[in-house]
């Protein structure tokens, strides 16, 4: 296997959750194609007239999807915050299952040219979609210290966010930070206690990546669209890798499974809007053997829900 192959996480549990066997000729959506690990297993289970739409915002991932020669597969280069319009544009109709496998892929993380990696030097970019948006270097050049601190603190859960933001602002007075190795070196000066086995820049790089790609906003915009495109009994399956992502997924599924109105409104329980989702099973985490074989699986959580109305 090449260094940049992507090993899918929770492959079987996530694809099982889509319940393809009960509607093999249905319409499914892989909202995060990556390198197609989940897509391939979905295609294996799909019947001859089933359809799969595979979305990714990364042009390299999209290019990889176009290499899969299967007439049932339609790739799309789009953000999943545009899920509904993308599927409408492809005349996909209602979906029987939508899968999200969030975060970044191994090819993104390991290709130094993409700027996600702190271990190898490259341009400080970190955009998943290199065709639009602002890269990490540009953002670090313009953001003020407080914004940098909040991003690193909130998305990286980094104790030394204040010191790191200060160090970044001091460093950029000497010249712009344009390379991943430069940023990693600046961060290392500000992180005083190292977590075992973790590079001091890990949390900062993760935080900046989440910010540059607006990952939490994307997810918050995508979930209601996934619900809208599903048909009744359709399945929503989401694998998240970050506690903030998982919280968004959990809160969305719970709110749709148990609609509530503000307290003290004179509304009887039977007049509440009907639930739109039913939560299927408990959240699933990878088994120790999967984590041992693929450390990226460490923080993964799969949540599944079924549309009921
Ligand atoms: C963890 S990887 C998916 C791996 C895939 N399941 C596989 O087995 O190969 C996540 C992928 O989602 C894509 N992605 C992340 N956020 C996205 C968004 N908002 N819209 C579209 N694609 C997104 C990334 O570009 C990346 O390729």
Largest sheet: 7 strands, mixed
Indicate the low-confidence ranges by residue numbers. none
Query: What would you call the shape?
Result: globular
| Mean pLDDT rating | 95
Ligands present: S-adenosylmethionine
Helix count equals 13
Order of helices and strands: HEHEHEHEHHHHHHHEHEHE
Strand content: 5-15%
Fraction of helical residues: 40-55%
Could you characterize the architecture of this molecule?
Helix content is 41%, strand content 14%. It is α/β, with parallel strands linked by helices and 309 residues long. Strands 3-2-1-4-5-7-6 form a seven-stranded mixed beta sheet, with helices on both faces. Helix 7 (145-156) crosses helix 8 (161-174), helix 7 (145-156) packs across helix 10 and helix 11 (215-229) packs parallel to helix 12 (243-257). The mean pLDDT is 95. Residues 6, 8, 32, 34-38, 55-58, 61, 79-81, 101, 103-105, 128, 218 line the site of S-adenosylmethionine.
Note the topology.
Elements: H1 11-17, E1 27-30, H2 37-45, E2 51-56, H3 59-66, E3 73-77, H4 83-89, E4 95-101, H5 106-110, H6 136-142, H7 145-156, H8 161-174, H9 180-190, H10 202-212, H11 215-229, E5 230-240, H12 243-257, E6 277-279, H13 288-293, E7 301-307
Parallel strand pairs: 1-2, 1-4, 2-3, 4-5
Antiparallel strand pairs: 5-7, 6-7
Helix pairs in contact: 1-2, 7-8, 7-10, 8-9, 11-12
Bound molecules: S-adenosylmethionine.
